[in-house]
Amino acid sequence: MSILPTGSASAATAFDCTGLTCTDVSFTGGGGLILHGTVIGSTTPHAQTPGIVLVAGAGAGPRTEYQSEARAFAAAGITTLVYDKRTTDYSFAHRDISLLADDALAAVETLRRTAGVRADQVGLWGFSEGAWAAPLAASRSRSVAFLVTLGASGFSPLRSQTWSLATTLRHRGVTGSLAETIAGPTARLLGETGAFPEADFDPLPALRALRIPVLALWGQHDVRVPPAESAAVLRNTLTASPAVTIGFLRGGAHNGRSTSDGFDRLGAPPYAGAPRGAFVSGYFDTMTGWVQQIAAGNPPISSADAPPPETMVSVDPGRGCWTSARTQLTVLAALILGFAGYLLWSFTGHRFRATRTMSRLARPLACSGLMSVFATVLYVVSILAFDARTVGPIVAARSLTWLGLQLLALLTTALLAGTAIATVRAHAGPLLRHRIALGILLLIGCLWLAWATTWGLLSA
Fold this sequence. Notes:
- By secondary structure, the chain is an alpha/beta fold.
- It has 12 helices and 11 strands.
- The protein has helices at residues 67-75, 97-112, 130-139, 157-171, 177-192, 204-209, 227-237, 283-295, 325-348, 356-385, 400-425, 432-454, and strands at 20-28, 34-42, 49-55, 79-83, 117-127, 147-150, 214-219, 244-249, 303-304, 394-395, 398-399.
- The strands form 2 sheets. Strands 1-2-4-3-5-6-7-8-9 form a 9-stranded mixed sheet, sandwiched between helices. Strands 10-11 form a two-stranded antiparallel ribbon.
- The longest helix has 30 residues, at 356-385.
- The chain is elongated.
């Protein structure tokens, strides 16, 4: 669920069809794009079988990435279509969940027309990002008979991502204002400027529109989306669904694999090239057994497992005017122009006159303020954009870089106070134009102080 898709698409040549039947198919997805997939079923003859389409999570999503789920469904007598996720109109800078939903619906129609598949019992399985696309697809068509999700978020992609980052930072021993800065002004800046694609996608309208049975699963140790909060959202939103089963996979990570805390993987790789970690016990049986009940016309009574505890609560990035992207961009522009303008004027002015104290403080103030603005924005944006891979070493429960930025902010604050005092005490030394320049610099410094407080540089 990070901004940065991982991996690259690969052909289905490595798809394991041992003991099962596989048929390669092509179909037209959203926007007329030709997509390629594999229909996999049991070798045991069945008159009519239910079907399920697998919708991939974030990233390139080649069909081989989900062959374990596909094989489990097929072995249980549920014909499965898994397809290579689109790479056209899907990239680091652009995602369209509505288009992904159109792809999923096209796959459903392809499977419904497959010989031996019950057209009235074809459902969707969606993982992570796919758990936003699959409900949206199901809400658009009466052809979808049921829905299974793994690692679904009840919140927007941006809010889910900032929660995941806060959880990751805490796991690494980071406390304090960094996570709040990322979840607040940084998130709004990226989301409202379009740098975070589909930042404000709202899953609730699609969930409210569902009139089909739903099985929603999360790993007990999911650290990519808030599992307890998301489960509560789905339970309270899927009020029109005839049967809703909320479940948590004991010892499971976001992707259903075994973990002790969500950050490690336990067990040997189930097949070559897979992310390390065995699938948690009961993962496949829970899904296949539930689908078999639905197909048999015997849906289970709605139920919800007790949610696991969450150490972090997800945070809405906010709606206030001061932290809006437009305001923050205006403030950033004013700070950069103000600090840089004073430096340029002080070094190029032919009649620059100042007291020794003022000249010692004003220029360093402009330099440190300018450095603080650039370095802070680049650092926190990189953490959100690259999934906390740029956090760096941890010292005293802070990242070393963030600690350095906070020290720079304290220095800037001290220089601002010193420059203000020196300006007030200087009675006759500076020229009028220099007094005006210093006045503007002090105003910019006060604006910087408000900005630094908002961005957590002066918080513990």
